Amino acid sequence: MSTSKNLITIIANWKMNPGSFKEADNLIKNIKNGIKKSENVNVVICPPAVYLSKIKTNAKFELGIQNIFWENRGAYTGEISAKMAKNLGASYVIIGHSERRIYLRETDEMINLKIKSALENNLVSILCIGETLDEKKKDKTSEVIVGQLEKALNNISSFQFPVSSFQIAYEPIWAIGTGITPAVDEIMGVALLIRKVIAKLYNRETAEKISILYGGSVDSGNAYDFVRKANTNGLLIGGTSLNASEFARIAGLFG
Ligand code: PGA
Fold it and tell me: Which residues form the domain of 227?
């Protein structure tokens, strides 16, 4: 892990795919063969948690988990803690993905607790934020982004907030899995807004250094612009990350 300004992070969010470990193993083999080791690109694969311990990382990629619970252990049926994820080999955790906010009723308060637990357990948080289509149409994107960020980071001091332990993924909900994407300027505008909020909550240095990713219908045709033209630090990739050659092609654009 590095905080170098030029380091691009490419994250695969496999969501609840593929359906068997055999397929997952195959996918990993093909990704391993397809991607190059690069000092400029940090590739992170987030498989379903049940596959995590069976996937061996190498110098080409790291592992992440798609969710954690906020306590380290206890009577929380079905949950997995940050500590457990870390012990299984995860270095990253996706927090507050819109699918969890929608289907699992995850609130900003829960997201805040999860970030605190990730920080305590030395997992890098990938905080997902983004507006719905309805909010966008009502011109509420900025309000939503500021609100989600402020609530997610509530009571987390700059002392507890090393910039290398935190990344923010702007994922407009209307762009996820739809094939519809924002204009480069829109992504750039939200990334700037995120840096402004971070500067206000922490300081300018943190705001400049923090990694901001874009996610939502990324493919090998639009990936380059979403990083280089929109001036982001990487991508969070869902559907396309299940296609090893396409995913490797995207990582290769920056290596
Ligand atoms: P998508 O998903 O690339 O399939 O749009 C992105 C995400 O939900 O993280």
Answer: 8-252
